[in-house]
Structures are given as structure tokens and as C-alpha cells.
Hints:
By secondary structure, the protein is mainly alpha-helical. Helices cover 68% and strands 0% of the residues. The protein contains 15 helices and no strands. The radius of gyration is 21 Å and the shape is globular. The model has no long low-confidence stretch (mean pLDDT 93).
Amino acid sequence: MLLVPQEPTTKPLPLLRPFMPELDSLRGVAVLAVLFYHGFYWGIDLSHFSHAKKMFLTAMWTGRLGVNLFFVLSGFLITGLLVNSRDRQDYYRRFYVRRILRIVPAYLLTLAILLISRAAPLNFVILSLLYLSNLTPLFGVAIAYPVLWSLAVEEHFYLIWPAIVRKISNRALMAVCVLIIVASPLLRLISFYIAQRHGWVSYEIFNFTWNSADGLACGALLSIFLRDFSPSRSGLRQFVVIAFFLPIAVSVAGVRLGVFSRLTAAGAALQVVPPHLAFVALLVAFLLFGSGPYRQRFRSPALEFFGHISYGLYLYHLLFFNAFEWLLNHGYIRRLDIDPFWGLAIRFLLLGTLAVLAAYLSRKYLEEPFLRLKKKLA
């Protein structure tokens, strides 16, 4: 982590503020986790590697949980925005105009690239235009570009959650969040048994919105709790310690039940539950450090940069990995005669750099002009 060498501040800031740069750092952590997952684990045949290197590559599997971190963070931030603007007359218009300006331009560009390059079939692109990317298997269409499934889950959250926040109290909202947190693992378990009866459990069933809502609910619950109960900083520090170690203990205890594999009933239902609790703790830790008396020492320009471009980087990075594999498989580029692990590392550095550059240019020249319209239109 790159630190900004500045003098410590003596007075802590409020935990919740209009601008929380530490959460950009957390976005950076999430998107880098996904980048490492796709660069070093996704679609890789591990049989070609030595035991030590295989262990490293297998550990990169955890990067897929960056999506769950995004869910927790999104639930936290979106719920906060909605609660703070609940009494505005332009509540719905303001929220949806701002979401459209933030999300749609880069999303449409991604779909256009997929369609023009024939990297995804027309039926998948059409369903994705309707933000049904995670539900395409229900229409007999494979998820052709995997990163879009989580955006569909987020969009469904945006469609439903504002109306719920508008109409009920914060305490009732907390009850709804708890209900979702309990219901989602049960729904994943039911989905697992339904799929098992048909002879094959596809990972795609866990991408369905009702099976993925508990991460968003965890973030939303934290957002409301901090607003309504204003816990002390010392109490939150104790929570962070407990919430970091409890998921580890639960995961270790659940090894014999197969919680690390979604091909078991326990894994299908519970695999992401400990990470969600850990990510809530991580979010609280970032808020504490980011608002504490030594907050400038914990600023990371590098992570904040990745957080700043995280949306575009998440959308585009797999385009580069997929294009590389296509060029390789069609003989346009040749495999290097070197150790496979170093080949992966070179591929990651090259394609990761290109993806970061594309995301930066997208943020500056495509996304920012639309973001500047927020103040005018909403």
C-alpha cells in the first residue's frame, strides 16, 4: 500500500461523511481481487504447475469474492444515499437519473463491443440490455460474458430497494435486511437441490438475484445501523476483531461439510456467508481508519486510483483476457517457450495494464462527461 506522508490529524471525523475516500480504496481492493482471479485462476488448467505454484494459483480463487465485496459496499452506499434523500420530492428522479448517468454509458459500450466482435450472441446481448444477464439460463441462453451477471443483480436492487426505503422506517428496513440475509442461503439450498434432481448443479444458479441478495442486505443493514444507533468507535473496533475471526472459525468448522465447494449442499448455501461478515468488518475497519486521527497515514493513492476506475476496469478487463485467448487459439500469437507460471505472469501484466489503461480512458473521456451532468439533471 502506498501511503501519503502527511501530519496526523488529532480530531476524528464522523464515520459517515458525504465524501469517504477510504471507500474508493475498498473498491480498489475489490476490483483488483477480481482481476487477479481472472488472471491467475479462471479457466486455468492447474495440472501444468508445480505444487507450490498450484497452491498460489488456487489461492487466487478467493478473488472471485471481490464481487461479494462490491455487493456489501454497494448495499451500504446506496442505502445511505436513499435514506439521506428519503424526504426529497425528487427522490426517485434524482436517484435514477444519477444511476443512469453513472452506469449506462460504459455498459452500452461493453455490449456494443461484445456484439460487434461476436464475443457474445445477439440473444445474450438483448437480455443484457434488459439487465437480465444473470437470468439468461432461465431463457436457455448461456452467460456469455460472466462479469455482467453481478451488474444485473445490482440493477435489480436499484429497481426494488428505493421504493422499500421510501415507504418504511429504518427499523423496519433493518428487519427486511435480516430477512434477506436469512432467506438467501435457504434459497441457494433449495436451488441446489432442484438442480441436483436434474443431475447437474451449475454455478450459474447462484448468480440468480434471489440467491445473491444477502451481500447487498449486509451492507444495507450496516448503513442503517450506523445511522440509527451511532455506536462508539471502541465498540466498532471490538466488532471488527470479532467479525474478522468469527468467519474464519466458521469456515474451518465447516470444512468437513464442504463449505468451500458449491457442489455440496452446505457449500451452496453457506460458502459466501462468512466472507460477507468479514467484508462488513472490513468496511467498518476502513471507515474507522479513514475517519480516525491518523487518517492521512492510511490514504492509499494507488488503491484510490483503482477504486476511481473500478467500474470500467470491472467491465472491460475480461474482454482483454478473452481476446488474448482467441488470438492464441487461432494462431495469431504464439506461446512462449517458458515456464507456464511465468507465462501467466507476463500475460497478467500485459493484459492487466491494457485493461487499466482502457478503464482510465473510459473514466476520463466517456464516463466523466456524463457524471458532470448529475448536477444539471439531478
